[in-house]
């Protein structure tokens, strides 16, 4: 976990825009700067999508979507998008562990100080103070977008917190089950039953000269071929 830099100073809409620009063959940094602006905002948005495993940079610095990023970028509808975001969050230990700990302890609310203790003490992420404070708020907001809880800003003595959805354990279980189920396109087709090869039937053409034949002989020959029905006995 030494390389973890908790996402902060960005927002969900910026992440969605970056993923949209990277669809298909990816996007280079210069193009992103032209479309989204440069500086800290873009840098931290890139960090967020990389930390969550939604995009990766190649040797030339171009940004490409991962499999998870493609599912999220091409999600149809809010429900599908929220589900894909939830799965991405569950694959990122700093986001998944507080949720699992809350379920184990029977908590219905995550407050800022509790999450900070998990990150800094239990997980030993050693984040700078300003980063960890803003990262908690971003975490709560992202969880709100994912449908895992409701973000509540601290006012009137109340701490900044995430009020978890009821039956969070069931929600996470369903998300993981759906993620492990094979996609329709990934199911291997059933191999067709092999049949013994049958050589093609040979065709034979016979020409018969009936010029000098009598009518009785012609009728007898056609009956032999089945062209003329056999004569009925009188």
Structural features, described:
With 234 residues, the chain is mainly α. The protein contains 10 helices and 5 strands; from the N terminus they run H-H-H-E-E-H-H-H-E-H-H-E-E-H-H. It has helices spanning 12-21, 29-36, 40-51, 67-73, 78-90, 93-105, 112-122, 129-145, 168-180, 215-225, and strands at 55-57, 63-65, 109-111, 149-152, 161-164. The strands form 2 sheets. It has a 3-stranded antiparallel beta sheet with strand order 3-5-4. The chain has a two-stranded antiparallel ribbon with strand order 1-2. Strand 1 and strand 2 (63-65) form a beta hairpin. Helix 4 (67-73) packs antiparallel against helix 5 and helix 7 (112-122) packs across helix 8. The longest helix has 17 residues, at 129-145. The N and C termini lie far apart (104 Å). The relative contact order is 0.10.
How many helical elements? 10
Computed CA radius of gyration, to the nearest angstrom? 35 Å
Shape: elongated
Share of helical residues = 40-55%
Mean of residue pLDDT? 85
Oligomerization state: single chain
Unreliable stretches: 186-196, 200-204
Strand order of the largest sheet: 3-5-4
| Portion in strands | 5-15%
